[in-house]
Design goal:
The structure holds 3 protein chains of 3 kinds. Chain B is mainly alpha-helical. Chain B contains 7 helices and no strands. Chain B has one domain: Four Helix Bundle (Hemerythrin (Met), subunit A). Chain B starts with 7 loop residues before the first helix and ends with a helix. Classes of the chains: A alpha+beta, B mainly alpha, C mainly alpha.
Chain lengths: 276, 211, 608
């Protein structure tokens, strides 16, 4: 009696907790609202199964508790029942999977007009690179990295000259402009994750990975590293600021291109030599 | 083998609680396969080894595609070793045939030849290593080298493991302290294992010369 | 100890038949190619208890070693929880120590505790007894298996004492990070970890060889595969999985060791770190992940399948009812086992592998939900119309059902590729896998210990302590991991030493404190359990033979508790499946497997 009630109470408490707890996801700030919808759908379907199975179990524990005079039923199997349950479950699984795959298809299909941004991860911080006026990011290689060329840009690639280097943990995005995030890592695995945008993907040294989203809400969002990357993993933060068109242009105007940076460094060097 | 045909689907659809099934089940001797435990043991080990080698081969094929891959040129010694290994397998087969005919005196000598050839193979492999090291081809020089050392080492360890059981069988034969059934089985299983190692070597060596 | 058997060949009783006349075997037994198994008879204390070849003793050795290392894992988790719940008060853990604790806790619990306990511990103890064998087929190899395991554990412990400490690479040991200086323990710690894992795999293969072949070839007369208790089915399938999956871990360990020690580039791409470019180049970190999860996912079922099997038997015995849908249960175990080899990449949805794999692996993963759900239905339907004794093993089984369903259902979230995108690498994942492969199997472990303790020692565990243990462990663990899912929804990433001040993270502070307190209470309760185990060993209430009135063979040995050789002079002969409880038409409430039909004259199962 007691046991059955406690088990039932635990289930009721779980439901109450779900509806009354203050902990829930942050409001979505990108186009991936339909990920939330898929989660809600899964919640209802699986939650119903969980509650049904556990309450039924509690009922059995109460109804069929030990009585000396009771004799348990002898029933090796019930084909019809098992068959029905199998198909019902299969149906439920299809109902969860099908919408999930549709959204996944959308997730991996980058729109044509997406603005490409390179996110460069290292132990432990973030840098960014935007394509210049040509809209193309220049080629890179870890082998080219030196003090003058912190991103390892290929100097022989004409597309690299006008690339804009944002050597700062904060990134600005234009609102309602789809972006394709191209992820690069210099050392180990990282993961560029902004909870409000829902999307994430690992960065790997040696290859470029990507994902896309459209920021749809103005604001400032924290970037977290979501793949363990060593002692400083928890401190690998940054901010994404989603701006209106005007603010974005102002910010962009302050950034410098690779070419400019090279000439500036060259000047500095010459100055140093001249001073000596 | 034929008596115990194993039909998994039929087996799994038995209803052990039904009277008709009980009559059949009561006659069951408790063995699923008509194989001795030792034979099954060796087979299981060969399956596990096959999984290991297959995973290495998969990794090899994956790693091979990267541009920094530089194939090694195989020295003639490697071909000699391969021939030695083929010959060993052949002699082991002869040994097994002899022991099946209860001609243990002859089998004894053949076993010694097997041992000699196997040690020759291992020495040969070590010489190939030395050859590469002298050329400055270390494991870290190139992934192809790394895989070469890895494959030969792993195969070598398997051979050494086999030699342990070969040693036990040979000692028993020479000290005349054996039961006929057991020694026959030991020789048969060792022979199977040697053939298995030959096949593994063919695959690894073939993979390395083909790429 | 009844060690003296006159002959190596052990005779079995002639088959008895209810019709009265003796029916000769339908098929002749093939002539044996080698003489039947010889039992090694212990001569001294050392060979009887230390270098012992009796599977029962080896099982206990495995279980004790696993429990000991498991407690270290538990203590490590306290350190982590204190840091997460009360970072200001308990600031003695630096990030490096924190990550080392996380890593060692995970590795110890998954491999050295759960795998070793279920297969090494329960497998060794129960397989020969339940299938009616005198011992494992290769007792010597079995003994070596245990000693390899012990060496692996010792190497693991040694890594705590080397310069730089144990590895802090996370239990997944992803390269390149695992062997680069940015990770704690990248000096000797990681090497010892890889060596220890390799030793574990080798040792386990020796044991696994025994389990599989004993179950296949060494059963007693009349014990068909479909008459085996589900416990044996679970352990058997899990062992087959382990034999095929552990090689992947082995291969990955070897290649990573070489990358670390010889400077090869199997997994190491071009890397620029600490201001310089490393010598590595061209390797693929994703290849490691594929190898690791090709082992890692079956590993989940290596832990879960024995739990499935054992819990089915516990529920059946304590509800006095046959397992509902026995065949379906066996099929489900086999199907889950087979499917577990084609779902591994659902751990890698956001790893940067080809995104098209997502479709395939999401589909296979969700298909696995079907046989798993069927198992759950059948457990609950076994309770339906049973006669449920609320003994401690039954309580733990009920606890298992709740936690397993909960953890299984969150698996449907994470398996569905698009839902995994926001939730992966958050506390949702942590809560999910602790619930489904931590708490749920542990519920079964505890239930099984309360169930079989009388068989092992001849005494019962203290019931009051047991009930306290159950309620605190079950309610406490549920209170830890159920709310933890919601931290994941907020977006709190896992493996964070500190949560900082992001608004959505600070909202979880109270929750984190609550979880820490609950975790400490549950953790300390396990000490109570240990106390119960050790004191009951000599002070516990004496148990009569077969206290739970179970049918399977292990309870029907001539000596109780069973001694070396298990079954005395003659092996038992099996006449029925192990679930003949409350058979209609029979006045006996239960009919053990080795009772011939002639002794239960009225026993005729009604056709369903």
């Amino acid at each position: 009696m007691f046991v059955a009630i406690v088990f039932a109470l635990i289930i009721v408490a779980s439901i109450v907790f779900h509806f009354w707890s203050p902990w829930w996801w942050t409001p979505v700030a990108s186009n991936w609202g339909n990920i939330d919808d898929t989660i809600i759908l899964t919640f209802w379907v699986t939650g119903a199964v969980f509650v049904a199975v556990c309450l039924f179990m509690s009922y059995c524990v109460w109804e069929y508790r030990y009585r000396p005079e009771r004799k348990a039923e002898y029933k090796p199997e019930d084909k019809k029942l098992e068959f029905r349950l199998t198909w019902l479950t299969a149906l439920g699984v299809v109902a969860l999977l099908a919408p999930g795959l549709v959204v996944w298809n959308k997730y991996i299909t980058v729109p044509e007009n997406a603005f490409k941004i390179e996110v460069l991860a290292y132990q432990w911080g973030w840098n960014y690179r935007l394509p210049g006026d040509d809209g193309v990011l220049g080629k890179t290689s870890v082998g080219f990295i030196n003090d003058d060329n912190p991103y390892g840009l290929d100097l022989s690639d004409p597309n690299s000259k006008d690339d804009i280097l944002v050597m700062d943990a904060d990134l600005h995005l234009k609102i309602n402009q789809p972006v394709k995030i191209e992820l690069r890592s210099l050392d180990v695995l990282h993961n560029f994750y902004i909870p409000q945008f829902r999307a994430k993907m690992d960065t790997l040294p040696g290859i470029i990975t990507y994902y896309w989203f459209t920021p749809e809400k103005k604001g400032e969002y924290e970037i977290l590293c979501a793949e363990y990357c060593g002692t400083g993993h928890y401190a690998m933060r940054g901010y994404v600021k989603v701006d209106e068109e005007q603010d974005y242009s102002n910010w962009l105007a302050k950034q410098i291109s690779f070419e400019k940076m090279l000439t500036k460094k060259e000047l500095n060097k010459n100055l140093l030599i001249a001073e000596k | 083998m034929s008596k115990k045909e194993l039909n998994i689907f039929k087996l799994l659809s038995e209803k052990p609680w039904e009277d008709s099934q009980k009559v059949i089940d009561d006659q069951h001797d408790g063995k699923t396969l008509a194989l001795s435990k030792a034979k099954l043991g060796v087979r299981t080990i060969m399956v596990v080894s096959t999984v290991i080698f297959s995973l290495f081969v998969v990794s090899y094929s994956d790693r091979m595609l990267v541009h920094d891959w530089r194939s090694l040129s195989e020295p003639w010694l490697l071909w000699v070793n391969t021939i030695i290994l083929i010959f060993t397998s052949f002699v082991f087969h002869k040994t097994k045939v002899l022991s099946d005919k209860n001609e243990f005196e002859k089998a004894k000598n053949y076993l010694l030849i097997v041992g000699f050839l196997t040690f020759a193979f291992i020495t040969g492999q070590l010489l190939v290593w030395q050859y590469y090291v002298n050329l400055g081809q270390y494991a870290s020089t190139n992934p192809a080298n790394a895989f070469f050392y890895l494959f030969t080492a792993l195969h070598g360890v398997h051979v050494l493991g086999g030699l342990f059981f070969w040693g036990r069988a040979t000692t028993k034969l020479f000290t005349k302290n054996f039961s006929v059934l057991k020694i026959k089985q030991a020789i048969e299983l060792c022979a199977i294992y040697w053939h298995f190692l030959l096949i593994v070597w063919f695959i690894l060596f073939g993979l390395m010369i083909a790429t | 100890m009844t060690d003296e058997y006159t002959d190596n060949k052990i005779e079995t009783k002639a088959a008895d038949s209810s019709s009265g006349s003796y029916v000769p075997p339908a098929e002749t037994i093939p002539a044996q190619e080698a003489p039947d198994q010889e039992l090694y008879h212990a001569k001294s204390f050392w060979t009887k208890w230390v270098f012992c070849q009796d599977a029962k003793v080896i099982g206990i050795q495995y279980a004790l070693t696993a429990t000991a290392i498991g407690f270290i894992g538990l203590i490590l988790s306290w350190g982590m929880r204190l840091q997460l719940g009360f970072p200001e008060t308990f600031s003695f853990l630096g990030p490096a120590t924190y990550y080392q604790s996380v890593t060692m806790h995970g590795m110890i619990m998954v491999i050295y505790l759960l795998t070793a306990l279920f297969l090494g511990g329960f497998g060794n103890y129960l397989i020969p007894l339940m299938v009616g064998a005198r011992d494992m087929v290769f007792p010597y190899v079995n003994m070596v298996s245990y000693w390899m395991f012990l060496v692996a554990v010792l190497v693991l412990i040694a890594s705590f004492f080397v310069p730089g400490g144990p590895t802090g690479a996370g239990w997944t040991l992803y390269p390149p990070q695992a062997i680069l200086p940015g990770t704690p323990g990248s000096e000797m710690g990681i090497v010892l970890m890889l060596v220890s894992l390799s030793l574990f795999v080798i040792g386990f293969t020796m044991g696994g060889l025994n389990y599989v072949i004993t179950i296949l070839q060494s059963r007693t007369r009349g014990m068909t595969l479909m008459r085996m208790p589900l416990t044996i089915w679970g352990i058997f399938t899990a062992t087959v999985l382990a034999l095929l999956a552990f090689p992947a871990l082995f291969v990955a360990c070897i290649m990573m060791t070489l990358d670390n020690l010889l400077g090869t580039s199997f997994f190491m791409p071009e890397i620029f770190t600490m201001g310089e470019k490393l010598e590595y180049g061209g390797g693929s970190p994703i290849l490691f992940q594929h190898l690791f999860w090709f082992f890692g996912h079956p590993e989940v079922y290596i832990v879960a399948l024995p739990a499935f099997g054992i819990v089915s038997d516990l529920i059946s015995v304590h509800a006095r009812k046959n397992v509902f849908g026995y065949r379906m249960m066996v099929w489900a175990i086999v199907i889950i086992g087979a499917l577990s080899f084609i779902v591994w990449a659902h751990h890698m949805y956001v790893s940067g592998m080809n995104p098209w794999f997502g479709f395939f692996f999401a589909t296979t993963t969700l298909i696995i939900a079907v046989p798993t759900a069927i198992k759950v239905y059948n457990w609950v339907l076994t309770l339906w119309r049973g006669n449920i004794h609320l003994t401690i093993p039954m309580l733990f089984s009920l606890g298992f059902i709740v936690t397993f369903v909960n953890g299984g259902i969150t698996g449907l979230f994470l398996g569905n590729v698009i839902i995994d995108v926001p939730l992966s690498d958050t506390y949702f994942v942590v809560a999910h896998f602790h619930m489904v492969m931590g708490i749920a199997p542990l519920m079964v472990v505890f239930g099984a210990i309360y169930h079989w303790y009388p068989l092992i020692t001849g005494r019962h565990l203290n019931q009051t302590l047991g009930k306290i243990h159950f309620w605190i462990t079950f309610v406490g663990a549920y209170a830890i991991y159920f709310p933890m899912h919601y931290l994941g929804f907020i977006g709190v990433p896992r493996r964070y030493f500190e949560m900082y001040d992001s608004p959505y993270m600070t909202s979880g502070v109270g929750l984190n404190q609550f979880i820490t307190v609950a975790a400490l209470i549950v953790g300390f309760t396990q000490i109570l359990f240990l106390y119960n185990i050790f004191t009951s060993w000599y002070k516990g209430e004496k148990s009569e033979r077969n206290p739970w009135k179970a049918n399977s063979l292990e309870w029907h040995t001539p000596d109780y508790p069973p001694t070396h050789g298990n079954f005395g002079k003659e092996l038992p002969v099996v006449y029925r499946w192990p679930y003949d409880f409350s058979v209609p038409g029979s006045d006996k409430e239960y009919i053990p497997q080795d009772v011939p039909p002639s002794q239960v004259p009225t026993a005729k199962a009604e056709q369903t």
